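User: Show me a protein chain along with its predicted structure.
Assistant: Here is one chain, sequence first, then structure tokens.
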Amino acid sequence: MPACSMTNCHFLVSLFRDVQCRSVILGVLWILAFAVNLQAQTGVPLSDSEVDAYNTRMAVQNIGPKYQFTSDNVLLEGAKVMVAAGSNTYKFTMNPTGGGYGISVPPSITNLAQLAKNEPSYRATLDLPGIRNYVFWCYTFATPDNWKWNTGFTPAEQLAEYNEIYALAVHLLTQYNNTGKSFYLGHWEGDWSAGVSMSAPNNSNPTPAAIQGMIDWLNIRQKAVDDAKANMPHNNVKLYCYTEVNRVVDAFTNSSAGNQRVINAVVPNVPNLDYISWSSYDIQGKSAAEIKFYLDYAESFLPTAKAAVIPGKRIFIGEFGYGQYTEAVQAPMNAAFNKTLFEWGCPFALYWTLYDNDLADGATYNLIDSSGIKTANYWLYQYYYNAAKLQLLAFKQSNGRLPTNMEFSTMASSLLATPLTAPVALTVSNASAVVTSQQSATLSSSLLQGIYGDEGARMYLCWGTADG
């Protein structure tokens, strides 16, 4: 069979001239399908490279993991786990100390470009064919994640930051030219980074020096990315810069004692910013209407300079999770939140997290627990990836193209409207059998492909006086 999600099969069957031929007029004809490897026989796999590359939006990060199960470094292991589940998007950390993955960065590596190129686990993760979208917290050796800009960002510090981000950008654009990969360089929750008090956020604002320092930091990082893209010839590889916000609701609801936030005090002053990431714990418990209201509110602060360059919405969810609830309750909440986000148009929603980063807090933020058990959230993601790819494939077969962002938003929202179930490899439904003469009959049947990328199907036509 060719690649398909639903194929209507019509067969004209020539029958032998014997006594059985006459009995078939009163008998039953049916079709059986058995999964066999047909790819070697036909050269047509039940998958599609454009579908494999398509952004299906639901994604997962692997940051600060406390356990692992293979001999790979846990950074690379996590990427392979997500590819096996069906994802092509991965979020992680890149910094001078090895990102919390047990990586010992040698003294010979002194900048991020060298880390990406020469550290084996980072290099293997970035090279992994199944990952197309890399979202990562990116902290330079010049400005590690102690937020030196918090008390001001000097011209010398800005130059060092620029040079290192520029070198990383050049490496990514050249090393991954013509791979179809996209890279999103950003950072952890900006409002906490800028100095908002975690214990009393409603009565805490960043200092003016911290706000200006963050503005300068983001502008210089964005300029480095933009300059590298302008200066380096490249094709079929994308590179973006983002800032992450995490207290957007404060800006709308708090008094002046606690309403100066990254979204309203910093973002409008970074005119060329590509994307906003939102660590969205402040909205994930709200109604769908409220979530969309706050997404619109956040978008109102995003400068429009890149609107003509980057299609679609430019706010994605960089972090969310429901670890305080039982695993059985988490999955439907997770699905409902993603549904609302995709209805609005978010290009990504990244769940916290693949492997738990804190085994002592009593919460269950994971897809796979420390015993290796795959949770309800894991199956939600695996079933979603499979169903989404099958629908993408069917859409492409029907329309000769992949869906637009808005068309896929509708598709994804529809998938998440009801609980997803485990796929069945192949399902055959017989429709009719019409004997056109003593020598021939026409059979009609539908073959439903339930697992994207599964082996091909060989069709058998059976006839006789009894079904089975």
